[in-house]
Write a sequence for this structure.
């Protein structure tokens, strides 16, 4: 069974989140003496999981597209119920006791496996690892937060209108998979940040390096969250 919840903020807060004292989940508002949880960088799944466990009196910071309906499962998972795990284990042991495993016959245990030498050679050849060096002419770069200077991992970097792109690693670094040309336009995207548009010029092509600094999106809603449950539906 699942239920749907609708998140909304009826009275947006006019405080500046950047002035809040940082906490593990967001920031502490001195005006209302409450922690404001920063949901703007979380996924839909993380948000729905949070409100499945706690949905009263939460103050949050959201992007406009996050104030919507979320489906939440109401069936407890097996791993969260110790008695279910125990019952499952007992039933499994019972089944094993009533249906003992049959020992292999002597003929099967003594059988000598046959090996096709041609297939073996082919497998050994295909398992060899061939390292392909990166092209030195490809443009490399790093995506950083404009204010903190911290790396932004998993940001999308793609070439406009050509469907070619890549994403940053844990250090915010990337190597573009195609040799760029003067006049190309790169788009850099990451949740909670404004898109960065980069026009490839002669200087970038000569240096083959890019330092992309992204700023958080200015369009956010902050305040106490209203959680409504419009309907339930079975799966």
């Amino acid at each position: 069974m699942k239920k749907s919840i609708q998140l909304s903020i009826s009275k947006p807060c006019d405080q500046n989140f950047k002035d809040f004292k940082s906490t593990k989940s967001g920031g502490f508002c001195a005006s209302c003496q409450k922690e404001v949880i920063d949901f703007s960088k979380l996924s839909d799944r993380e948000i729905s999981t949070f409100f499945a466990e706690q949905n009263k009196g939460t103050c949050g910071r959201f992007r406009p597209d996050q104030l919507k309906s979320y489906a939440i499962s109401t069936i407890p998972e097996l791993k969260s119920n110790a008695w279910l795990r125990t019952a499952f284990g007992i039933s499994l042991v019972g089944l094993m006791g009533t249906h003992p495993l049959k020992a292999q016959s002597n003929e099967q245990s003594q059988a000598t496996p046959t090996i096709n030498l041609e297939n073996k050679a082919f497998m050994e050849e295909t398992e060899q690892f061939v390292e392909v060096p990166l092209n030195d002419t490809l443009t490399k770069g790093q995506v950083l937060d404009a204010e903190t200077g911290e790396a932004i991992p998993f940001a999308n970097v793609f070439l406009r209108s050509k469907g070619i792109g890549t994403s940053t690693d844990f250090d915010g670094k990337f190597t573009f998979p195609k040799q760029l040309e003067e006049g190309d336009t790169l788009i850099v995207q990451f949740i909670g940040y404004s898109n960065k548009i980069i026009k490839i010029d002669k200087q970038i092509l000569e240096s083959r390096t890019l330092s992309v600094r992204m700023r958080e999106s200015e369009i956010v809603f902050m305040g106490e969250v209203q959680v409504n449950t419009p309907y339930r539906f079975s799966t």
The two ends are 6 Å apart (CA to CA).
